[in-house]
């Protein structure tokens, strides 16, 4: 039963006891590539920030807000990719974490609301050849009718789950793993920072939420357990402790919520 259940899940090929799922933009990278494009070559930061706030408050769903962001960027797709490769930086501790993960059979799966071609190009540039060992699940890009993606105004986002208000409902992939038989199901980690991670927040064993970002506000409001991270050095430290049996995911989540209540999460606590 276990073999059949994992046959179509690439991250289960090595029978790992732990899998690390992660958002890409603003989590692995220091900047969100989609925000960066929108702020600098799209409709600008003010409108983009308002869209994020409207998504958090439920006035608009993430899919529609994100589509509006991407429609404001008209440069040819190849120019967008090069623009991001030239400007987006990697969290300085991610490579160390990824090397540890490779050495300890902890597959890393990127679940992103961004577009796969951009993510793969950035990972190749920032991480190097080993980036191919990361599974990437994101949205797609397609040419507008009668145009090429490499001409002005020629491309648009194509959502992985167009029927979902998330565009890419990350919970779909996560549930494929969380529903595995108990004897093969791995412990699941997830790291994220913002509104694109709301669909993933409840679906993992330990959620790492980035200090000072919107995901913490959501988790606190909805009573979703989480722990806080500032960069990937703290994620690496906590994962090592859990993998080595020095702490549990439950203890880590408790510590994270206590840090939030004490005002150490970079977000003003909603309650004490």
From TrEMBL:
<dbReference type="GO" id="GO:0016791">
    <property type="term" value="F:phosphatase activity"/>
</dbReference>
<dbReference type="InterPro" id="IPR050849">
    <property type="entry name" value="HAD-like_hydrolase_phosphatase"/>
</dbReference>
<protein>
    <recommendedName>
        <fullName>Phosphoserine phosphatase</fullName>
    </recommendedName>
</protein>
<dbReference type="Pfam" id="PF12710">
    <property type="entry name" value="HAD"/>
</dbReference>
<dbReference type="InterPro" id="IPR006384">
    <property type="entry name" value="HAD_hydro_PyrdxlP_Pase-like"/>
</dbReference>
<keyword id="KW-0378">Hydrolase</keyword>
<dbReference type="InterPro" id="IPR023214">
    <property type="entry name" value="HAD_sf"/>
</dbReference>
<dbReference type="InterPro" id="IPR036412">
    <property type="entry name" value="HAD-like_sf"/>
</dbReference>
């Amino acid at each position: 039963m276990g073999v059949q259940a994992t046959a179509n899940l690439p991250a289960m090929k090595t029978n790992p006891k732990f899998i690390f799922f992660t958002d890409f933009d603003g989590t692995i990278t220091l900047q969100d590539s989609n925000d960066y494009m929108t702020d600098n070559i799209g409709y600008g930061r003010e409108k983009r920030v308002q869209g994020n706030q409207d998504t958090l408050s439920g006035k608009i769903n993430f899919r529609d807000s994100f589509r509006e962001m991407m429609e404001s960027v008209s440069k040819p797709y190849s120019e967008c990719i090069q623009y991001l490769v030239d400007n987006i930086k990697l969290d300085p501790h991610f490579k160390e974490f990824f090397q540890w993960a490779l050495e300890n059979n902890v597959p890393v799966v990127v679940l992103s609301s961004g577009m796969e071609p951009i993510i793969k190009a950035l990972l190749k540039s920032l991480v190097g050849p080993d980036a191919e060992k990361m599974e990437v699940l994101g949205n797609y890009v397609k040419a507008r009718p009668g145009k090429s993606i490499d001409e002005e105004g020629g491309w648009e986002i194509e959502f992985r789950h167009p029927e979902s208000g998330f565009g890419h409902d990350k919970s779909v992939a996560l549930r494929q793993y969380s529903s595995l038989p108990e004897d093969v199901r791995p412990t699941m980690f997830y790291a994220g920072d913002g509104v694109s991670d709301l669909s993933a927040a409840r679906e993992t064993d330990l959620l790492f939420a980035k200090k000072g970002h919107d995901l913490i506000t959501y988790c606190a409001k909805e009573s979703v357990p989480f722990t806080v991270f500032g960069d990937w050095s703290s994620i690496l430290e906590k994962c090592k402790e859990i993998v080595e049996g020095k702490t549990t995911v439950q203890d880590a989540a408790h510590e994270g919520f206590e840090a939030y209540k004490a005002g150490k999460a970079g977000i003003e606590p909603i309650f004490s």
